[in-house]
Amino acid sequence: AQSVTQLDSHVSVSEGTPVLLRCNYSSSYSPSLFWYVQHPNKGLQLLLKYTSAATLVKGINGFEAEFKKSETSFHLTKPSAHMSDAAEYFCAARSSNTGKLIFGQGTTLQVKP
Amino acid sequence: NAGVTQTPKFQVLKTGQSMTLQCAQDMNHEYMSWYRQDPGMGLRLIHYSVGAGITDQGEVPNGYNVSRSTTEDFPLRLLSAAPSQTSVYFCASKYRDYNEQFFGPGTRLTVL
After folding, report:
1. Within 10 Å of residue A9's Cβ, how many Cβ atoms?
2. How far apart are CA B43 and CA A91, in angstroms?
3. How many CB atoms neighbour CB A57 within 10 A?
């Protein structure tokens, strides 16, 4: 069965330092991959998506993610964290055979001043 | 466009009560889904629909019913609420064959 694993439940960085949120997926097929952000008491907002085009995907708010098939990873990065980046982040994969979206457990990003 | 809207935003129920969580979208999306979000478990799919009159079960369907009589609306019904259904519920929609899902703001449900 397809699964998505976010390797860290909580990440804390200082403002201005790089952000790395890790995501691994397991799938027999090449999935479509997504990163969503959820600010407190808000719905999910799409940050970026990979759909078998360029392996380095640029999203909103300066975030990027690189699809590495050999490592089955889709880690989210940002060169310099901002206080407004503090939120929960979800990695998700869409199975190409079922069409369903499978979410990881979520990573809470804390940004310290 | 209003996008995906959900009502109510907050709800408290007693065990055994029934209620319906409303979801509507004005983007003419064929696909609609209901998820529940619980701490440390991400979002889990409850039920989904690929078009009016068509629904199917997701990962955690027990205790929930859905119907899709129109393209715009996809209500989620709890027939007899249980404390285990305390959660945040998100409705989402997307175009058929498009990858991006649009999420509603969520309904925070507490069952006492």
Report:
1. 12
2. 10
3. 21
| Per-residue model confidence as pLDDT tens digits over B67-104 | 999 999 999 999 999 999 999 999 999 987 666 789 99
DSSP B46: E
The Cα of A87 is separated from the nearest Cα of chain B by a number of Å equal to: 14
Residue of B nearest to A106 (CA): B42
- Contact assignment for A90 to B103 by CB distance below 8 Å: no
The position carrying tokens 């097929």 is A29
Q: Which of B4, B45, B104 sits opposite A100 (nearest CB)?
A: B45
Task: Bin B50: left if φ > 0, else alpha if -120 < ψ < 50, else beta.
Answer: alpha
- Interacting residues of A28 by C-beta distance below 8 A, sequence separation 6+: A2
Q: Nearest by CB to B42, which of A43, A45, A90?
A: A90
The whole-angstrom separation of Cα B68 and Cα B48 is 9
Q: Is A97 in a helix, a strand, or coil?
A: coil
Please list every residue in chain A whose beta carbon sits closer than 8 Å to the beta carbon of residue B98.
Answer: none
Average pLDDT for A13-36: 90
